[in-house]
Each structure stands twice: as C-alpha cells, then as structure tokens.
Amino acid sequence: MATSAESRTRAYRWRMPVAWWLKSTHYTLYMVRELTAVFGALWAILFLAQVPLMKADYAGWLSQMRSPGWVLFSFVSLLFVLYHVWTWFNLMGSVLYIRLGKSPIPGTAINALMFAVWAVASIVIALVVATPILVG
Amino acid sequence: MYKINTIEPLWWGLFGAGGFIAAFLLPVHMLVNGMLIPLGAAPQEAYSPQRLAALVSHPVVKLYLLALVSLPLFHWAHRFRYLLFDLGIHGGRTAIAFLCYGAAIVGTVVAAWTLVRV
Amino acid sequence: MAERTIGLSVTRFRPGEDRQPVSQTFTIPYHDDWVVLDALQYIKDRHDGSLSFRWSCHMGVCGSCGMMVNGVPKLTCAAFLRDYFPNEVRVEPLANFPVIRDLVVDIDDFMHKLAEVKPYIIRDDLETAPVGFGHEFRQAPEEVDDYRQFSMCINCMLCYSACPVYGMEPRFLGPAAIALAHRYNMDSRDQGRNERMPVIGSSEGIWECTYIGECSVVCPKNVDPASAIQRTKLATTNDWFRSILMPWGKR
Ligand code: SF4
Ligand code: FES
Q1: Which of B95, C7, C42, C221 is 20–30 Å from B82 (CA)?
Q2: CA-closest candidate to residue C219, choices C66, C19, C9
Q3: Under CATH, domain C108-249 is a member of which superfamily?
Q4: Angle CA(B91)–CA(B92)–CA(B96) in degrees, nearest 5?
Q5: Cβ of C194 and B5 within 8 Å?
Q6: Range of the domain at A109
C-alpha cells in the first residue's frame, strides 16, 4: 500500500529519545557490553607501559605493579572483560554457520567450544606467566 | 565479484580480531599480571629479573604483546565510535571514525616502537 | 457475577488536527481468550468506529497487525490480554515509523528497502530454462536448511521497531531486508548475490548494525535477523580481504 504524499507530510514524526538505552535492561546491557572495550584497551595500554620497566628498571616495575591502583583497576577491568567474554562467545553460534556434510554445527556447540578453548588457553597462559613450569 | 562503497570490512575485521584477543587473552593477564603477581600469589621465580628480561626480549613474546595491545585498540575504536553515536552524537560520524581508528593506529605504532626498543 | 473488565489505553492521532498523538483509555469486557486485536475490534465496534488500525489474517501470518503493546513490538493478533490482565494495556503504533493515523504507520520506507535487496531468485537462465517435470531447480534438504529460518519472515516490521539503530538512522537498511537478502544469497538455486551485496554491504547496510540483537528477540517467526546480519558482515569481510590480498582471484 503506497502512502500518498499528502498523508506523509501530515504524518507524525516519531523521535528517538536520547536516553533510549535506559528504556530496557536489554538495551542497557548492550551499552555495558560496548563499554567493556574501553577497559580492555586501557588495561592493555597500561600493561604495555610496564613492559620496558621489567627489563630496565626492575625495582620501579615492582613498585608500580604492586600499587593498589593497578590491582584495583585490573580487578574492575577483569569484571568488564569477563562480561565481554560471556557476550562475545555466546554470540559466536549465531555468527558462524558451518555445515559439516549434511547438518550445520549447532550454535550452542560452537559457543561451548569457544568457552572450552578459552579455558584451556587461559590455563596455559597462566602457567607460562605465573609459574616457571612450562617456560623456565 | 562485486564492489561496495566503503572500507568498513577492514575496520570490522580488525574489530573482530580484537574482540577475540580481548576475550581469549586479556582476562587471564588481568588476573595474573594485574592481581596474582602484584599480590604475591605467584612464585617469585616466575617474575625474577632474569626470567622477565629473557621473556620480554624474546621476539615471539614481543609479537604476542603487540597483538595483545594493538588488536584490542581496534576493537575499542570500533565500539567507541558507535557508542558515541548511540549516546546521541549523530553528527561528524566520519571525523569520529577517523579519530577513533587513528588513535588505534597511533597506539599500535607506539606499542611496536616500545617493544622494539625493549 | 459482575463482568470483569480491562482498560486499554490506545494512541489516537488525527492527521491535520492533532499536533501529536494522545492516548485514550477504553474500558472493555475482559475475556481470557481475547488478544489485543480482539479488544481493538471491540472498541471499533462498540465505542468509536473511527479508531484506525491494520490487520488481516488474525492468525500471525500476514504481518500487518504489529503495534507496541506495553512498549514492546508485538503482533496484536498473538498478544493475549491474559498476559497483561488485570493491568491496563497500552497500545501504541509501531515505534520508529511515522504515524499516519491512530495505530497506522507509514511503511513505505520498508517497502522500498525490501525491493532494493531483490528478495527473489535471480538466475540468468530463468527465462530460457526448460519448464516442467524434471527441469526444476533442484535442492537437497540440507541446502534448504541453509536459509529456511530466514525465509520465515512475514514482513511485520517488528524488528525495525525494536531496532534503536533504525530509530536513530532511518537510512539503515534494517533487519528484515538484510535477513531476506541473506535468505536468497544462501539459496543454492540463486545467482544474484553479486547484485545484492553492493546494497547490503554498503555503508547504510550491514555496517550500521552494532548487534544490539533486539530484532531477533521480538521477531514472531524466529527469523533471527541479527544473526543474518553478522553472517553477512563476516562473508563481506572475507570477500573484501580476499579481493585485496588476491586481486586476480575470481572469488
Ligand atoms: S524478521 Fe521477524 S520481526 Fe522482522 S519483519 Fe520478518 S518476521 Fe517480522
Ligand atoms: S492480523 Fe495477520 S499477523 Fe496479525
């Protein structure tokens, strides 16, 4: 049904409220999800800034990384980034469509696989960084 | 083949790669480098001056660290660009995109330079 | 036993007379097997014959009765009063669209976008192919699975109304149009992908989407347009990088 030019000019134009993302929990959680990227990037930059010190100024690095600010910021960032992990991997099943022969891999299986790989990778990295077990 | 009027696939590709790096690698580093080691919960030999120096001098570790920093920057740039739009800043979208991705590119260059000199 | 009643607050807008929509409340008998559309029809029959709204099938297939019910886009023929009773039900026109009268919105924008993505099978040999038994374009069941979900769309536009991006940027091609383009792109009988990609892969297409995902939540047919959009982004990105890295390749 085509709308006449006349009825279109007399139509009421709806306007999106600026605070639309406060209108439903789903929208608000979406905004939180987008915000997680800020913590990820900021933490990564601050971490990189410590790297030269590890070699050139060991004592300086020790005091810097032991500061309560760094630990607290890491903790807060971790919470946000864990939310990123949760949302990111849970969306993978809808993004990746892989048909093996006749049947597509179910989305839930893809999601589960992501979390499994993530867990294993995290343990390996933790063993490398926090212990001399894997890399002496 | 077809042509599209934009290079968004480049930014989206970097965003996606950054999303994976942020999800797979950042949490464990936040836990270990941001909390366990600072709080003394990791064995001291793990971060002895010798071991640390050897680690951060290794080219593979440098590449790893570059990816760890650079790709989450592009991930941030992409999301932040749209976040500003979502918050009601609807004008100057090209300029905002330029600034966001530009910041990620500058961050990547600085990170690479820092790591080369370590 | 006294008859039970339910309140319906309904958006009214008379073009040319009202500057903006107002809401009018009607109190009507409550029946637990009534849907919101039944209530609107009762109002039109008994209270105010000028109340305007669209509907056709009353069974969730035509996609014309979409409205905001308590702020959520719904097919009113599938939204039962009993899910809201005894509270008042708020019925408004679909969000994000211009309101023509009362609960009727202007759908022209969507109609144009739909046509732009060419939601039909495109083949060079459609005219010349022999017709008749044994000459169909055959498809295996698993090839149907590749797109089946995305073919369920009834063009009800609930997804547009749930999409904040479309609300802020009306040029955005939007969920259902992209989902339908994806449906034909994934059809093994179709050869029109290269015609659709410049439209859906443009800056007003898939790239506006930030995967808020509400379109897939409100879709009455489980089409999951959000997933269609992300899959298209992934495919476009693959194509793009391939064309940059291997410009000589034919895809
Ligand atoms: S995708 Fe779903 S919500 Fe959107 S128009 Fe189609 S059926 Fe309606
Ligand atoms: S009247 Fe046809 S879908 Fe509701």
Answers
A1: C221
A2: C66
A3: Alpha-helical ferredoxin (1.10.1060.10)
A4: 125
A5: no
A6: 19-135
pTM of the model as a whole: 0.93
Query: Which tens digits make up the pLDDT trace of A35-90?
Result: 999 999 999 999 999 999 999 999 999 999 999 999 999 999 999 999 999 999 99
Q: What CATH number did the domain enclosing A76 receive?
A: 1.20.1300.10
Query: So what's the pLDDT on residue C249?
Result: 64
* pLDDT classification of A2: cutoffs 50, 70, 90: low
Q: Based on the structure, what is the number of domains in chain A?
A: 1
Contact B32 A65 (CB under 8 A): no
In a domain, A35, yes or no: yes
Q: Ligand 1, from C150, C214, C223, C227: best to mutate by most atoms within 8 Å of Cβ?
A: C223
Q: How far is CA C186 from CA A128, B3, B87, C179, in A?
A: 44, 19, 35, 10
In this structure, how many other beta carbons lie within 10 angstroms of the beta carbon of residue C192?
19
The ipTM estimated for the assembled molecules is 0.95
Statement: residue C244 has pLDDT above 70: yes
For residue B115, what is the nearest residue in chain A, using CA coordinates? Answer: A52
Chain C window 214-243: which residues touch B at a Cβ cutoff of 8 Å?
A: 233-234, 236-237, 239-241, 243
Q: Which pLDDT does position A91 carry in this prediction? A: 96
Query: Where residue C16 falls among pLDDT bands split at 50, 70, 90?
Result: confident
Q: What is the C-alpha to C-alpha distance for residues A15 and A57, in angstroms, rounded to an integer?
A: 57
Q: Quick one: fold of C5-105?
A: Ubiquitin-like (UB roll) (3.10.20)
Per the domain annotation, does A6 fall within a domain?
no
* Cα separation values, C25 from B28, C160, C216, Å: 56, 27, 31
| Ligand with an atom nearest the CA of residue C64 | 2
Partner residue facing C99 (CB), from A2, A14, A99 = A14
**What is the domain partition of chain B in residue ranges?**
58-118
The rounded distance, in Å, linking the Cα atoms of A78 and A39 is 8
Please report, for chain C, the start and end positions of each structural domain, with discontinuous segments joined by +.
5-105, 108-249
